[in-house]
Amino acid sequence: MVLPKLTIGNMVADVPIVQGGMGVRVSLSSLAAAVANAGGIGTISSIGLGDIKASETEYERISREALIREIRKAKSMTNGHLAVNIMGVLSNADDLVRTAVAEGIGMVVYGAGLPTKLPEIAGDANVNLVPIVSSARVAELIMRMWDKRYDRTVDGFILEGPMAGGHLGFSLDQLDAIENHSLDLILPQILDVVKPYEVKYGRSIPIITAGGIYDGQDIARMLSFGAAGVQMGSRFVCTDECGVSQEFKQAYLDAKEDDIVIIKSPVGMPGRAIRNKFLIRVEGPEKQRIKCRYRCLTACKVASAKYCIAEALVKSYEGDVDNGLIFCGKNAYRIDKIVSVKTLMDELIAGVRSAEIPELKAA
Question: Domain 6-243+336-360: which CATH class?
Answer without folding.
Answer: alpha beta
